[in-house]
Amino acid sequence: MKLQHLISLSILLLFLAGCGNLGVQIQVVPPPDATSTLQASDLPTPATQAPTATSILLPTPTSAPVLLGGASAILFSSNRGGNVQDLYLQEFGSGQITRLTQGDSNNLAGPFSPNGKKIVFTGSGLTDSYVGVMNADGSDPVNLTNLPDVSDGFPAWSPDGSQIAFTSRRDGNNELYLMDPYGHNLKRLTNNTFDDYAPTWSPDGKQIAFVSDRDNSTGIYSIYIMNTAASWVKRLTNDGGNDYSPEWSPDGSTIVFRSVLKGQFDIFTVSVDGGDPINLTNTPSSDEWSPSWSPDGSLIAFQTNRDGNWEIYTMNADGSDPVNLTNNPADDQFPYWKPILNSQ
């Protein structure tokens, strides 16, 4: 794997921030605390300067449907506009790609809100990273965590849109937290000397899957499940690999994740009831990262370097019929499906 690929992907895993600050004005909200309550005055006001979304028309696919996997578009991070990662949105019907952010530091894609109107993301500064939220068109970015010299990331919306789970190193190591979509009503979920990070919600909002090295040697990770009160925790994978990036299937029965076995990263699925993981990719001489279920559960998006650089692919839920969506010489990473917009 190219060194630049490892550097770009280590941004989230090690919370190493890029240089400089955002080239747009970012709103900040007061640092969250455990006792704050949301008032009308807490709602963010429009930014005085918002990123300009730049549309780039690509050749229209001859047979691409308007909807794919129950989604209208896919969000991803890419350095195709320069030396840093920015957010891009690719429509399935037209093939149009819209650049949502433009600055001089990294913005890493996160999931859409359940109604498709907002995007949560990880932004970087000189010595820290933060969890931010923006409108789905890239406008009005807001820094939700806003703690100097603290690394926050891996945000995930709850299914009802009322909470965001995320990872923070504010207490010295990676721990899981909850906050509301305005950065308030902070709640710490995990509290131990090991790393807990990368939360993902079950479809019913009652459980969270995450990554931890609590039962392994330091830096060797497995997938765990806990309830949202953090009163019980169950280890899900114990396959001898190093497991990352869990995401719950829409029907709640399966978790997709990536694991490194024998030096190669592949995409696996495992039943939430336990059992042996199933290898979906198994492509020699390439790595697969960042799996993401489509809203209808029929497809999985992921990134792969099988073409010599990072591209966004889709495959069927059983690993068959891989398709290159992005097909660009830049590095395209961290895919997230855009749900069909509704009125919620």
Overview of this protein structure:
It is a single chain. The protein has a single domain, classed as Neuraminidase. It contains one helix and 26 strands. The strands form six sheets. Strands 1-9-8-7-6 form a five-stranded mixed beta sheet, with no helix packed on it. The N and C termini lie far apart (43 Å).
Provide tags for this entry.
single chain, 344 residues, mainly beta, Neuraminidase, 5-stranded antiparallel β-sheet, 1 helix, 3% helix
Produce a short descriptive summary.
The protein is mostly beta strands and 344 residues long.
Share of helix, binned: under 10%
Distance between the termini: 43 Å
Number of domains: 1
The H-level CATH homologous superfamily, spelled out, is TolB, C-terminal domain
- Tally of alpha and pi helices: 1
Major β-sheet strand ordering: 1-9-8-7-6
Rg, alpha carbons: 19 Å
Provide the succession of SSEs. HEEEEEEEEEEEEEEEEEEEEEEEEEE
**CATH fold name:** Neuraminidase
Count of individual beta strands: 26
Q: Please give the largest β-sheet.
A: 5 strands, mixed
CATH architecture type:
6 Propeller
Fold blueprint:
Layout: H1 3-14, E1 27-28, E2 54-56, E3 71-78, E4 86-91, E5 97-99, E6 107-112, E7 118-124, E8 129-135, E9 142-143, E10 152-157, E11 164-168, E12 175-179, E13 187-188, E14 196-201, E15 207-212, E16 222-227, E17 233-235, E18 242-248, E19 254-261, E20 264-271, E21 278-279, E22 288-293, E23 299-304, E24 311-316, E25 323-324, E26 332-339
Parallel strand pairs: 1-9
Antiparallel strand pairs: 2-5, 3-4, 3-26, 4-5, 6-7, 7-8, 8-9, 10-11, 11-12, 12-13, 14-15, 15-16, 16-17, 18-19, 19-20, 20-21, 22-23, 23-24, 24-25
